[in-house]
Structures are given as structure tokens and as C-alpha cells.
Amino acid sequence: MEDKTHLVDEITGHRRMRRNRKADWTRRLVQENRLTVDDLIWPIFVIPGNGIIEPIPAMPGVNRMTVDKAVEAAKEAADLGIPALATFPNIEMELRDETGSNSLEKNNLINLASAAIKKAVPNIGVITDVALDPFTSHGHDGILRGNEIVNDETVEQVARAAVYQADAGADIIAPSEMMDGRIGAIRHALDAAGHQSVGIMSYATKFSSAFYGPYREAISTGGLLKGDKKTYYIDPANGTEAVRDAALDVEEGADMLMVKPGLPYLDICWRLKEAFGLPTFAYQVSGEYSMIKAATANGWIDGERVMLETLLAFKRAGCDGILTYFAVEVARQLAKR
């Protein structure tokens, strides 16, 4: 029999990687990661009023909506199979003050939204944030005293706010203000109020990033911010510090971990999943979303493919799910397959 061995066979030792890529069916058989609707959490923005859907210019396709419209959005999400929503309020400017006191109003906007959504769509998860930036007149995530964001007083307030949010129907509290000790304080407060079943998704590693701009427009804090958030968010240069921060949250009782922003920090997603084994999530933030939308609008990229590729990257990096403004768009695409 004629020997058809090729030089390439000798070079590779008869190992050819392309054998598993030769056809659609083989590629499907060996695919390591898959994106499904179960991986999606949809962040939405809530505003006062009734019957209003308000486009956000910096985030094409994303809207602020009143509670009644948020309920409709929750029904749509549930029908598509999206497991959970993450809600963020844009309250009236006259209700914002130095301490973010409106966060402690039992019937504030975020809590009204939670109650309405859970009543109308009880099978969808509601995730709420207790950071104070939507409630403060200075745009910071905590209480400002002089030139300092005070840690301990902020922790006391967000723990109280977490109880009110749980009372209103929040299933998971996701504290993003990055104060030291907040996870343990929130856990104790929830348990003391009888909310042992309410989980905590810690923004375990929230970086002082340039990717948050469109979000700040969405909740109307961009023009309010005095200074920056570098004294409480993590330096983008610091990976080991981020892991240490997450380790403290794990010790304090976090049920889930989150990395924010997403794509620039895939290494952190992987490190947290490997180190702790907890359910790990990434927040594909507003800047990431808006860049894809802008490049798509200019015809520079295939927006649908890039959207799906970025989300798959989170799965490859060890994430169990992704908070993304693309959630509904992706869910529709997946439903067609």
C-alpha cells in the first residue's frame, strides 16, 4: 500500500487540530462552552411617573421606564426565559441629598418597582443594589462628610436599605458601593429581619473604570459627581487586590460574586471562579454595550456576532451568568436557533 504520509504528519506527530473542526456537526460535538438564556440577567432603569418609556441617548436600544412599563418588561423577560432582572432607579433630583436618605424610604422608587414586578411576575428574580449613588446629591456611592466617603456610616445605611429592599420583594441584594464590611453587615441585617432566604450577590471586584459613563447618564448622576471614586473602587491595575477583596466578601457570607466591568477583566472572572468556586457573574457595563452599538451603527462590525462573542467569552472565563443590556436581544436570537 502506498504510504501517503505527508511532511505535515511528521511535523505534527500525526496530530491535526483541524480534524475536530472539519464540519458543523463535529464543531458542535466538541464545543466547550455555550451561551443560553439561563445565563442572562437584564439590568433595567426605573423612573417616576406612569406610562413612560424614555430612550437613553448614550445607550441605543436601552430605555428608562416607569414602574408599570417595568412590569411589562419583566413579563417579556419571563416569557423569553430570562431568569432575573437587576433594577436601578433614577429618582427626582429634589429627593437626592448628601446622605442618600431616600434609600431608607420603604416606598421609594426601587422598592415600588420590586413589589410591582414580584406581584405581576412572581417567577422572575429581582436583584437590587443598595449603593447610594442614585440617591445622593453628589453622585457618590456612600455618605459624603467633608471630602471623605465615610465607610462605617455608609455600611450601616446600606444594611438598613437592604432590609427594606428585601421587604419589598427583592430576591438578591447586590451591593456595589465597595465599602469595607458591607457584606457581613447586610447578611446580619437580613437574617435579623427574617430574610434568611434572600441572597447576596457581591460586587466583589468593582473597578475604578472609565466604562461607566453611559450608566451615569442613565441614572442622572454624571453631572453630580464630585471628584472620583478611587478611594473605594479598585485600581484597574490591581488583580491580586481584587482577589483579596473578593475573599473578604466570601468570608462575610456572599452567596455569589460579581466582576464589574466585564470584558476588560476576564482574568479576574477566571481567578475568582478558580479561587472560590462560588457562582460568579460579570457585569457587561454600559460602556461596553455602547461601544458595540456605536461600532455597529457605523458598519464597522457585525453587531450581532460581536454581541454573542463577547457574552460567550464570559462563559469561557468561568462565569455562570452575565448582567447585560443585550439580554432581551440575545434571548430573542437564541430562541430562533
TrEMBL record:
Catalytic activity: 2 5-aminolevulinate = porphobilinogen + 2 H2O + H(+)
Pfam families, alphabetized: ALAD
KW Cell membrane (keyword) present: no
InterPro entries: ALAD, ALAD_AS, Aldolase_TIM
Transmembrane segments: none
UniProt superkingdom: Bacteria
Active site per the UniProt annotation: 206 (schiff-base intermediate with substrate), 260 (schiff-base intermediate with substrate)
GO MF assignments: porphobilinogen synthase activity; zinc ion binding
One GO cellular component term noted in the UniProt record for this chain: cytosol
GO biological process terms, semicolon-separated: protoporphyrinogen IX biosynthetic process
Record-linked PROSITE patterns: D_ALA_DEHYDRATASE (PS00169)
Pathway: Porphyrin-containing compound metabolism; protoporphyrin-IX biosynthesis; coproporphyrinogen-III from 5-aminolevulinate: step 1/4
Keywords: Heme biosynthesis, Lyase, Porphyrin biosynthesis
EC number of this enzyme: 4.2.1.24
Family: Belongs to the ALAD family.
Assembly, per entry: Homooctamer.
Official protein name in the record: Delta-aminolevulinic acid dehydratase
Underlying gene: hemB
